[in-house]
Amino acid sequence: MREVEVVVIGAGQAGLSAAYFLRRRFEPGTGFVVLDHAPHAGGAWQFRWPTLTFKTVNGVYQLPGMAVPEPDESTPVAGVISEYFAAYEREFDLRVQRPVSVRSVRSLPDKRLEIATDKGVWIAKALINATGTWERPFWPRYAGQDQFNGRQLHTAQYRGPQEFAGERVVVVGGGISAMQHLMEIHPYAAATTWVTRREPRWRSGDFNPDRGREAVAMVEERVRKGLRPQSVISVTGVPLTPEVKAAREAGILDRNPMFDRIEPDGIAWDDGRFVPADVILWATGFRAALDHLAPLKLRGPGGGIVMDGTRVAADPRIHLVGYGPSASTVGANRAGRAAVREIRELLSSDRS
Questions:
Q1: Which pLDDT band holds residue 326 (cuts at 50, 70, 90)?
Q2: pLDDT at 89 over 90
């Protein structure tokens, strides 16, 4: 059992940002500790598919205090960002402990927190949770899904388009990942079909700061009410890049409404339409990985957690960064700074 002032769970963009600001006031190992479940530095970036390059990625934002490398746009993102995160941890002496899996967080009678892991127990006065979403891919359920004869996989398992050569592929989801998958797979597959629950919201023109702030405010309003957070992209819409425009004109991004059931050899609608399929690729997003916080009973009747900025409204010891409005690389940096500022105030008031 080890004691620190603050525990950070997760070493992705949000966790490293928080650690950077903690490092300016606390000593790593005694004042704070960063626990990371992943085997290597890089957060969720280390698990991205090899064909996600600096040309196709939807933005990479620098961590505070160190610029992001700028390789050739054809370079895969995963390796470069993993190396960047590793260099960042060394440069600022963050001493991330990995792989460490947090099993539960509980409140102790003395108002401190017990963080139980597979490598022992930590006791802290405050917690910054930065576990992101990669560990919780969302799989919708549809009638007949278990009887499908083909293969089903999630974006989290996607490794590139070549494995779909000669197959009839259904891609489910209305986000940027789904569209990137379709554009990559189409030249290899025998056929591709795109289905979404809602019509995509296309966005033309520049995404200026005012539009960004408006989108973040809409997501923040939901978490203030204790509702499950929407993704920022669901609010901002999908940018109409030249590649996306060309794919729409070529019929690759020809959206179909959501099917009603899955049959052994394909997908079907109640109006009688049927599309044969060998593969269903679920590009249906992720959910916040917060199961280890269940003992704190933070969730409300709306299914989410009532938030005030990065702070859990019902428990000022707990901050969620990379959650809701800060679930973006830009937002994660700001959230890390804000969380550390409030935690310093909390610890100061406890001492007085």
A1: low
A2: yes
- What is d(CA 200, CA 248) in angstroms, rounded to the nearest whole number? 12
Closest to 173 (Cα-Cα) out of 138, 216, 124, 209: 138
Phi-psi category of residue 144: left, alpha or beta, with phi > 0 → left and psi -120 to 50 → alpha: left
Task: Report yes or no: 285 and 138 within 8 Å, Cβ to Cβ.
Answer: yes
> Residue 99, preceding bond cis, omega within 30 degrees?
yes
| Contact (Cβ atoms closer than 8 angstroms) between residue 127 and residue 293 | no
Contact 49/29 with Cβ under 8 angstroms?
A: no
98-122: b (≥16 Cβ within 10 Å) or e: bebebeebeeeeeeebebbbeeeeb
How far is 237 from 38, CA to CA, in rounded Å? 31
DSSP H helical ranges for 158-231 = 176-185, 209-224
Quote the Cα angle for 79-320-102, to 5°. 70
pLDDT tens digits for 227-267?
676 665 666 677 788 889 999 999 999 999 999 999 999 99
User: What would you report as the CA-atom Rg of the chain, rounded to the nearest whole angstrom?
Assistant: 21
